[in-house]
Amino acid sequence: MTAVTAPSENVTAVRRLLDLLASGASSEQLAHVVVAARAEGALGAADLAALAGAGELALRIRETLAEHRRREAQLVALFDTASELAALSEPDTVLRSIVRRARALLGVDVSYLSLNNEAEGKTYIRVSDGSVSAEFQQIVLGMGEGLGGLVAQTARPYSTSDYFHDDRFKHTRHIDSGVKDEGLTAILGVPLAIGPKVLGVLFASDRTAREFSADEVALLSSLADHAAIALDSANLLDQTRRAVAELNEANATIRAQNEAMERAEDAHDRLTDLVLRGGDLPDVAAAVAGVLHGDLTVYDADGTLLASSAVPALLDPDALAAARAAGRAVSTRDTWVCAVQAGPELLGSLVLAGRAGLTDPDRRLFERAGVVTALLLMLRRSVVRAEDEVRGELLTDLLTAPDRNPRALLARGRRLGIDLSAPHAVLVAHADGGSRRRLASAAARHATLVGVHAEEVVLLGAGDPDELARRVAADLGSATGRPVTVGAAGPASGPSAIASAHGEAARCVRALLALGRTGEGAAMAGLGFLGQLLGDHADLDAFVRQTLGPVLDYDARRGTELVATLRAYFANGSQLARTKDVLHVHVNTVVQRLERVASLLGEDWQAPERALEIQLALRVHRLREA
Length: 626
Description:
Elements: H1 2-23, H2 27-40, H3 45-87, H4 91-106, E1 110-117, E2 122-129, H5 134-137, E3 140-142, H6 146-154, E4 158-160, H7 173-182, E5 186-194, E6 197-206, H8 214-276, H9 281-292, E7 295-300, E8 305-308, H10 317-326, E9 330-331, E10 335-342, E11 345-353, H11 360-400, H12 406-415, E12 424-430, H13 436-443, E13 449-453, E14 456-461, H14 465-480, E15 485-492, H15 495-514, E16 521-523, H16 529-534, H17 540-558, H18 562-571, H19 576-583, H20 587-601, H21 608-625
Parallel strand pairs: 15-16
Antiparallel strand pairs: 1-2, 1-6, 2-3, 4-5, 5-6, 7-8, 7-11, 9-10, 10-11, 12-14, 12-15, 13-14
């Protein structure tokens, strides 16, 4: 009976072991089958030994299957990691994914990653997961220092179950302080390498003592290999993006430069065409303003406005001085200023408004406009000098030899657009110091003919001589910043009369200076009786009419005796009582007559200067009557 059932019980027990093994039972469940069979006593010693061997084999098979499943899970995790890393493109995102996956796969408290700085020979902790210490996250490891420095230097994995009691690597105060502040004990570090080049170190660490198995080292190394490839790819992609961005920027710069060159060529052609066609400064201002999309203003060396494309922009003297010193256009808060020079000589300036900034090509174009402007100003100066020479020769011949060939002088005047046979006021301008040429240039806008003769500036102009002299004196004084005295004579028609008027105008200037009236302008007639005394041809009748005309006319119309009353009044020392006795009239009559005189000659007729001229006119009138 026993011989028949024993094998059956043994087979049943073995099948039970296989069923448990197939269902994934635990080690305890497998071991319980042998223990239960031994407790039942149904099997002999040999069968129990065979069953115990089968149980041990089942345990080994279970461990093998568990290891296979663990490896399969790790492979799946590595595959998922590789897929995840491949999908990432930003280096920082890749680094964070690496340390997060390392912590999850190895089941550690803290994972972190450091990157090498080859130039400094150090490795810096870049990313961490699970770390709570700021000091630890800022650790810097030199090559060969600490466990991480040793891994970075040797490109080999290292692990320690008790960091502070492991003397295989170099301990430093700041590294140990950071590790202690984080509370780490067991640390595993593997290199992130691409070929022989180590990019950094990947760490897995626990806050309790722990031995890292070879499988864990291999797993972290595999993860590091995947991470190194993904990180290198991300860096390459980032470099590629930067290179593409730089290339796009370079292309944009090239396009902008090409456009600027085309604009410069167009401006050069337009400016050249303007110069060749005889264009002037307003044409240049309009052309440059159109090319630079701003408003251009041109000034001469004295700051006088010469041309503007729109509303003139103000010139900043400090900016002009800086532009002269630098030899380039300079900017102010609202404008750009370029000095117009011929060598060291300042000819003028350009002011560009409406452009907050200028690119280098536009700035060079603006400066080129300054060169063209200098050329036009030099050309204008040459033309003016040539015309001044011709006009100066005419003026000299006109004043020194008017009777030599009057017809030739008239013909030369007509060729210059001057009709010397028409009435002209002749003016002589005098200023102490300063350039006579500059004074003549400033006076040109008041004259049909101007030049320097006998060290004085001589002008021929149209209008009343006295009024013109006052206006020219005031204007030239403002333009030169010094007193300018102007004497006038005329109007005179023809070469001989003009030459005579010039002599009288020169004497008028000397009279003004002698009278202390420097900086004023006047004609001989405006000097009153002094003009008659100083003039070559005294017109006494004109002087009397100018001084007493209204009174003479009133007496002639009304049959009154205002002139006689004035003679008696002045002859008796301006005393009313003595005057009425001489005239044999009532004092009220004298008062009424003098009030009438005031209404005719003005309320200031008794002022000293007016009274003197009136008395002189009364004497001349009496002599002329006699």
